[in-house]
Amino acid sequence: MRHLKILLIMFAVVFAMAPEMKLRRVQKDIYMVRGVDALPSLENRGFMSNAFAVLTTEGWVVVDALSTPELSKEFVDNLMRVKKAPIKYAIMTHYHPDHWYGAKTYKELGAKIVAHKKLLEFYNSGDAQMALQASKQRFGELFKSVVLVPPDVVVEEKLSLQVGGKRFEITALSPAHTDNDLLIYMPKEKVLFVGDLVMQNRIPFMGDRGASSKGLLENLRKIKQMDAKILLGGHNEPMGMSAVDFTVGYVQFLRDNIKRLKTQGKSIDEIREALKNNPYTKYVMYDAFHNTNVFRVDSELDMEE
Ligand SMILES: [Zn+2]
Questions:
Q1: Domain boundaries, given as residue ranges, for the chain
Q2: What is the reported pTM?
């Protein structure tokens, strides 16, 4: 009896740790699943990012692929319960594992994969395979069934897709969160998919080798000027334009302060120490990303001089 009790508790713990995927309706014809706020792990199955789907009269258009084919399969199963229809397009906001690694499921279902031209370059360079092998080593079983999928449709600058009565205006950005970020705008609905460019009360990750804090600020200012009433990001709840102010605030805070401390001749360690107490310590992912961001902005400022 006692053993049974312990066993039941153990099951409860395991299930509590693995986040459940629940499809939510954002508004008419737009759906999402919301990943947890954490780094990828076996416990969370890599379900730590969002994915979106738009229902058109021709079928589904999905945005982002989650971290694994298993997760994207579960996402698609959810969509098919809403409406059994083909997946026409799958748009990747950028190449990070939690947005791209699940793309195999969409490809197998006949979707056209859409991505920034730099994502295709990354795929062709062989670096993408090396990054995947490194992820497989680091996270063990988590990425075991990931197969890299190149885009069928490449966005050079701008691309407008008209699918089953809905319009998607896609823009390929200059380096910002990565060097291959896409913005996807639905003009009639005034919905903007922002990938990992905009965060609300969460520290953005600026440590990618292709990232540019300067470019991120420029692109965030452009986003602020857009006529969007809802921003759908790779990690938050649906956001409003105030989220752009939060993200701009953090990036500007880093750039201004690191620049100031550098002109005083401070080393990277001294800069880290000087910025230890700051207004952002309480926000989600601070411990995971902040130090990397300081390091990255510091070396970026060296290049700008
Ligand atoms: Zn990302």
A1: 2-304
A2: 0.93
